[in-house]
Amino acid sequence: MNNALSSAVTGLSNFQKALDVVANNIANVNTAGFKSSKINFQEMLSQTIRPAAGPNPALGGTNAVQIGLGSSIGSIDSILTQGTLEVTGNETDLAITGDGYFVVGDDTETAFTRNGHFSMDAKGAIVDDGGRGLKGWAADTMGVIDNTQALVPVRIPLGDSMTAQATTTAKFVGNLDASQAVYAAGPPPTGGTFTTQVTVYDSLGQDYRIDVTFNKAAAPVGAAAAWDWSASLGATSLGNGQIAFNSSGNVDGALSTAGTIAIAPTNGASPVSITPDFSTMTQLTTAGKYSVTPSTQNGFPAGNLTGYTIGRDGLIVGQYSNALTKNLGQVALAHFNNPQGLSHTNSGLAVETPNSGRPQLGAPGSAPLGEITASALEMSNVDLSTEFTRLITAQRAFQANSKVVTTMDEVLGEVSNLKR
After folding, report:
1. Is 118 within 8 Å of 94 (Cβ atoms)?
2. Each residue's pLDDT tens digit, 120-141
């Protein structure tokens, strides 16, 4: 009889814990990044009244006679399915689609979370609700990120500025009309001629709109055609050279004459020397149509940080007032061989344990880490219909075990009455 009472008590205790698990799931139905849990039971030790016996020539075998001693909790497992994403409009809110975890903490503490509700503090650091910094990799002054370095709290450099850079190279692309005759100044001018403009900058960020003119010239020995080019700023000549083309209409670098565009600023900036790149231009027949344009140039004016974006790969890209962008940092994600082995602490944080394995760090965008969606949060994966079903099941099981206790109480009362 005592065994029956003890078994019922274990059931009452276990189903009370089952109700605790269900209650916690329901309480966190709207908690960002929360993963629901499920309790699993197992049978406790059994009392052997008679052991099993094998068959012999005279008698067949008999099974063991055992009475169970109740149940115990086998495990409480986290259900790690993906939660739905909810758009928040807050640019520091981040959601993970995949199996990764955000890394948060400081120099002495590191924890992991799926809750991507972050904000920015007064110094530009991206922090969680407890002030712990979101970790990743910082970019250097040129915007280069080294993912092999140790993680640091990522931050937005508020008030950052971009120093002006003088133009040193300018690339031109497009086509010159091969059907044109050699240019003659005239008057009136005849033959092939075309002018395009390129904007370049000096070391103080001053811009200059330079005219680059192409005139068809007599071909040098070995070339199929040639065009003279000259650069000017108003009436000031800045440089010239010649582009030679082969019979396929491509630039012949060996027969071309190199030249530079030289500007002497009057605002105190350093002299500007620009090497034009015509290597990808063509000379094909287009019946009077030209398409030469400047493709790229590496100069830019000064600018101040005006905003930023966080991409699916975790890259934090700064936007500057000079219309340029620069990498500011990158958010890191962690993956575990056994995420079920993580130990959960306060504020939805998890820490590694011997059974979770070491965190495997990497940049978002690849499996199994997953991708990041900015301005969104991953919501709880709690299914209320499932939780209410478990709630009813646990309640009925608790009631059934309590009936065993009351029944055994009545039986013990009858035993006590035997002496009367």
Report:
1. yes
2. 999 999 999 999 999 999 999 8
Contacts of 419 (CB under 8 A, 6+ apart): none
Residue type, 328: L
Residue whose C-alpha is closest to residue 95's, from 118, 66, 124, 76: 118
E strands along 302-409, which residues? 303-310, 315-320, 325-331, 333-335, 343-344, 350-351, 360-362, 371-374, 376-378
Query: Strand, coil or helix: what is 417?
Result: helix
Identify which of 95, 76, 98 has the alpha carbon closest to the alpha carbon of residue 85: 95
Q: Are 380 and 36 in contact (CB under 8 A)?
A: yes
Share of the chain above pLDDT 70, in %: 99
* Residue 121 CB burial class (10 angstroms; 0-12, 13-18, ≥19): exposed
- Indicate whether 35 pLDDT > 80: yes
| Beta strands at 119-120 and 360-362: parallel, antiparallel or unpaired | unpaired
Residues 6 or more apart in contact with residue 207 via CB below 8 angstroms: 199, 200, 201, 301
* Distance (Å) of CA 85 to CA 115, 224, 349, 365: 12, 62, 19, 17
> How far is residue 284 CA from its own chain's centroid?
45
Name residues whose C-beta falls within 8 Å of residue 155's C-beta, 6 or more positions apart in sequence: 123, 124, 125, 126, 133, 138, 329
> What DSSP line would sit under 72-108, residue for residue?
EEEEEEE--PPPPEEE---TT-EEEESS-EEEEE-SS
Burial (CB count <10 Å: 0-12, 13-18, 19+), residue 120? middle
- Contact present, 170 and 261 (Cβ < 8 Å): yes
Structural Rg of the chain based on CA atoms: 38
pLDDT digits (tens, 9 = 90+) for 104-121: 998 778 999 999 999 999
Tokens of 303: 């600018």
Nearest to 226 by CA among 277, 186, 180, 171: 180
Q: Which of 327, 283, 290 is nearest to 305 (CA)?
A: 327
Q: For the chain, first and last CA: distance in Å?
A: 21
Residue pLDDT, tens place only, 45-67: 778 888 998 998 888 998 988 88
pTM greater than 0.85: no
SS3 3: helix
Q: What is the pLDDT of residue 1?
A: 58
- Geometric angle at alpha carbon 335, from 334 and 338, rounded to 5°: 140
Tokens of 54: 């094998």
Q: Taking the mean position of all CA atoms in its chain, how far away is CA 122?
A: 24
How far is Cα 288 from Cα 313, in angstroms, rounded to an integer?
47
| Distance (Å, whole) CA 371 – CA 331 | 11
